[in-house]
Structures are given as structure tokens and as C-alpha cells.
Amino acid sequence: MFFITLVGNMTIIAIIWREQTLHVPMYLFLAMLAASDLGLSLFTFPTMLRIFWLDARELTFSACFTQMFFIHTFQDFESAIILAMAFDRFVAISRPLHYSSILTHSVIAKIGLAIVGRAMIAQVPLPILLRRLCFCRSNVLSQSYCLHPDILKLSCSNTRINSIFGLLMALSNMGLDFLLILLSYMLILKTVLSIASHGGRLKALNTCISHLCAVILFFTPMICLSILYRAAPRLPKAIYVLMANMHFLIPPVMNPIVYVVKTKQIRDKILKLFNKKKGTKNPEQH
């Protein structure tokens, strides 16, 4: 899975980087998503592989806090990028004649900076607030990697401030992102239903399938995990581990596969690249 994640996301970034025809909003946001998936996988998969292959289960608190910071930062990145992609689909379907004038390269750059800035504001305080706590309970985490709620359970100090801040950041960032994505698709659906031809409606909806898959892959496990933590706290730990792994590990693997399969332009550019490399090797074989 880790190999597929690396190759898939790096291929998408490289294809979009080198192909000038793909330097349009939809694919620039896709490159951001691939970079976010790459970052998230680099801070989750290696720890799991270290445990399973080398049986190396120990991690210092400093290293754990660092891993937690980057995991939650890239999680925040991904949520915001998926929201930006929903806005891109809304503009493309609802304002097609003004698409290129609304989503200029300058606007996309500002959106990218806003995504990074928001994540930093939300996540930088987490390790700072954790360092004021005392950890005197069990030092065994329930996951293969460090997450903020998991680390709080190890503390014997009052974690109320940490819990409230973590919850507020999750609701104001990813929770708000999800609501805005729903709003975007309600407006998209309203526009699609106003299209006269059946073929036109299907064509418009077809441009959203890949993005909808990204939304489902990212938000469904997170929402289920949040509900289970509060509604069924006594469920077997394995269920929470499974849901967390689905949230952090599956999207980086599946997103590049879905976008390659469903996006003709990306698929054609990849095939063109491989055919070009194959063509350059053939003369040497004769």
C-alpha cells in the first residue's frame, strides 16, 4: 500500500508539473491533494512498517508530538483542499463562462496559502499545550501512530483545555469544511437539475464523481469514528483502530487510483509518458 501511495501520488504531481495543458484549477487542486496524501502517508505508513517489520514499538514523546503535529496538519490540509475542489466543481458547473476569470492562478495561490496558514494556526498550539502536561499513566497508544486524543489518554494532568481546543479546531476546520462541501453540492445539484438535456446533466455530474469519491473516502471514516467515540465508547478497540486506519491510510492509496481511472486527461498523459519512454528504449534493443 505504501509503495502504491508513493508511486501514485508522485506520478500525478509529476504529470501535472510537466504538462502545461494541465495547469488549470482542477488539476492544480488535484496536485495539492496528491501532495497532501503523500505527506500524510509519509508520517503514518513508516511507523506502521517499523512496528510490523522490525518490531520497533518505542517512540520518544518529542518524536510522538512531532508525528502528531504533521499527521493532523496534513489531515487539515486534505480537508481544506477537498473543500477547494468542491468550490472548483461549483464554479465549473454553475459559472462555466467565468470559470477561468474567477479561478485564476493568483486566486489558486492565495487559496493554497490560506490552507497552509489555517492548518498552522490550528495545529501549532497542540504540541505546545501537550508539553505542559504530566504523563504518568500507561505509555501504550491504541494506534500505530500518534494522534492527539490518544496522547491525552496517557496524561494524569487536567486535559480539559487540550480537549476543548482540539474539539473546537476539528469542528471549526474539518466540520465546517464538510458543511460547506455539502452546501456546494446542493448548489451544484440545483444547477444540474436546471440543465434541459439529459445528456448535459449526466456530463455535469460525471465531472464530480472523482471528487465525490475523495469526499466519501476522507470524511466517512472520520464521521463514523467521531460518532462511535461518543455514542458507543465501549466498543472493541479494534473497531476504533480500523476506522482510524481507514481515515488515514485508505484515501492516500485510493485517491490517485480513482483520479487516474476517472480522469481521461490524466490517464492519457500517463500513457503518453510511458509510451514515450518505451519508444526511446526500442532503438537500443536492435
From TrEMBL:
Keywords: Cell membrane, G-protein coupled receptor, Membrane, Olfaction, Receptor, Sensory transduction, Transducer, Transmembrane, Transmembrane helix
Pfam families, alphabetized: 7tm_4 (PF13853)
Gene Ontology CC entries for this record: plasma membrane
TM segment ranges: 27-49, 209-232, 238-261
Single Gene Ontology MF annotation: G protein-coupled receptor activity
Gene3D superfamilies: Rhodopsin 7-helix transmembrane proteins (1.20.1070.10)
Record's keyword annotation contains Disulfide bond: no
Membrane topology: Multi-pass membrane protein
Domain G-protein coupled receptors family 1 profile: 8-259
Domain of life: Eukaryota
Subcellular location, record wording: Cell membrane; Membrane
GO biological process terms on file: cellular response to lipid
Broad class of where this protein is predominantly found: membrane
PROSITE patterns tied to this protein: G_PROTEIN_RECEP_F1_1, G_PROTEIN_RECEP_F1_2
Similarity annotation: Belongs to the G-protein coupled receptor 1 family.
Role played: Putative odorant or sperm cell receptor.
Protein name: Olfactory receptor
